[in-house]
Amino acid sequence: TCYAGRHRLEVIETNKTPSLKCGLKNDRFTVDDITIGNGALSYPIGLLTASELSIVGIVNSIQNSTNYLYTNQVWWSFSPYRVNSYGHAYVWRLRVSGDLENYRPNVACEVRPGVNLKPNVKASGAGTVDKPYIVKDL
Q1: Among 6, 58, 60, 133, which residue is least crowded by beta carbons within 10 Å?
Q2: Phi (first) and psi of residue 53, to 5 degrees
Q3: Which pLDDT value is given to residue 41?
């Protein structure tokens, strides 16, 4: 089984087309909205998808250590890549070299959560212990 992200982002594809659209309603995780999403979330937080990483410049097999998401650590995305004939699952992850790769989630790696903010909020702060982010509804 190959997932859509593999075909959209794979290095052998000539037309790499990351997408933020989710084709299956039961995979559209939302907090309250059951018209567009599934309403299955308690909190609006999750992992970044491989498409989101690709949109900001982290792509398959092209090293990028200057991207703002680069941390010199390996961390998992939320996007599946494939399941092979032995039943082994593969997931997109960010490598130390700053590019995407697919890998079996049988090793420990970091995760980085993402939070979606509504357009009517203002964020301030530096994201540090001394100056944490402060998010206010306008």
Answers
A1: 133
A2: -65, -40
A3: 86
